[in-house]
Each structure stands twice: as C-alpha cells, then as structure tokens.
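User: I've been going back and forth on whether these two constructs are worth ordering. Before I decide, could you fold them both?

Assistant: Sure. I'll take them in the order you sent them. The first construct and its structure tokens:
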Amino acid sequence: MNKTTQTLLSGMAALFLLSACGGGSGGTASGGKGPNSENRTTAFKSMMPDFSAMGKMVKGETEYDAEKFKSLAASFDEMSKEPFKHFTSDGEGRDGDALPNIWSDPTGYKAVEDGFHAAVANLTDKAQGGNLEEIKVAYGEVGASCKACHDTYRRPK
C-alpha cells in the first residue's frame, strides 16, 4: 500500500471512529438527544469494533486474516442497517448531532445513505474475494461515505 493510500485510510478510520454518526455525550447546542438519536448513537457505536478491526488489518497494524476479515465484513454489513431504522426526528431540537437539513432534504440524505449501503455491500463483496488491495479501496470508500454524510448532515464536533 502506498503512503498516500495508507494516510487516507488512517484518516478516514480515525474520523469514523471519533464521530460514530450519532456520537457525542448526549447534548448539543440545540437541545440534546431524544430516544431516536440515542438509538442511532447506540447502533452506530455497535458497528465500530468490526470496522476498527478491519481497519487494523487494512492498515497492516494486525495480520490480514482473510477468513476473519470476511466474518467482520459480514457482521458490519448486517449491523450497518440498524442505525438507519432510527433516522426520524425526535423534534423539539432533540435530534442529537443531526442537522435540520437531514429532515428538510430527504432526497439528498437518502442518496448519501444509499451510497453508504452500496459502499458497505462492495466491502463485503471484496472481502469474500480476499484480494487485500481491492479490500483496502473498498474500506476507504466506506470511510468516505461516512464522511460525506457527516460533512452535510451532522453537526460539527
């Protein structure tokens, strides 16, 4: 893996780990979290151990184990669907870190969400093939899809 790719993957993994989509400690300037926001946070955080473990293999921090990676990718794929069941407004400013445009721009948000799901499916597919170079690219695409959503629909940290 070249240095640029490694730097990009490391940065995306760190961004994803630190922000975990619904993240935070429960409060925002707009009124904190309601139950939907809390459920989103919990669901996103439950995905992180698998994403992190895959990232360590992708970055060479741990030995690449094709079978373990396949298992992690399949688990991540399954868990990645759960947070989106909770993307409805809690109202009264209790939407955690979700910006108001997530509710006022449902078409744009849906496109970003669909992009995330497509990236996760591609990662799962590449994991089944076992080609580490292809996996690295697919892993980076998942991180980029997370960042795309955060940049547009999530309150900056």
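The second construct, handled the same way:
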Amino acid sequence: MVRFHSTLSDESVYRRFFSQMKLESRVRHERLTRVCFIDYDREMALVAEKPKTAAGPAEIVAIGRLVKSPLKNEAEVAALVTDSFQRKGVGRELVSRLVRFGREEKLGMLVASVLTDNPAMKRLLEGQGFVFESGADPDILEGEMMLG
C-alpha cells in the first residue's frame, strides 16, 4: 500500500479524497490499518495488481471500495487508480465488480461523489448507470444508481 500511494500524483489524490493529503499522512500506520483491515459486513475493497515479473514484484495499481451506510440500504462506491494505469479500463472493471457486489448484497442504491473537475470519473460511473446532480457544494456532483 505504501508503494501504491507513492505512485499517485497530487491531482489523483485530490480527485479521490477531495483535499490534498501528503504521502506521509496517507501511509501512516494507523490509517493503513483502518483501510486495509475491513469489516466485510459493512464494506468491500477490491485491489487490482500488476503481476510479479522477473523485473520486479507485484504492484497494486488500483483500489475500489464499497462502504455500506449504517442507516440506509445503500453504499458509497469509490475507486483510485495509479496514474500510469488510468484510462486503461482498470477503474471501470473495479467499479463494475463493486456494482455486482452491491446487487449480490441486495442493496437498493449505490452513491458516489465526484469533483466537477473530474469528468473522466463521472463518465466512468455514468457508464455503469449512475445519474448525477449538483450537490450542496458547487464543486461536487452527487451520483446515484438504483439497484433494486
């Protein structure tokens, strides 16, 4: 995970977390413990890896997450792809699998928040069936996808 986070540009980090987060903050032991050890009753994390080769070890290239709401029959979906693997279908595949997981879990809806200056992620999610509207924050689009 530390290596994965070191491959991300400041722009990719900002577009995923909606704020600048320094590498040191993203790879703090306490934070990585929280995001790596998940409660499978409440969330799912999928990881895409570049396989090990003679030239080097396996590498994480993308992470997708689905986090269920404790109050509603819905979950939030998010994905983060390392810069060198963006626009190659990895994020689309992760989101597609998270949508399938949401259906298997009998969720009624998936939600996602996307910065207005991230049209690629908006298009990716729209391709899966999300519909977006402006939210309370003019810089953030709120998406929904009905499952049930």
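Notes on the second construct follow. The chain has one domain: 2-146. Helices lie at 2-6, 10-17, 23-26, 29-36, 90-104, 119-128.
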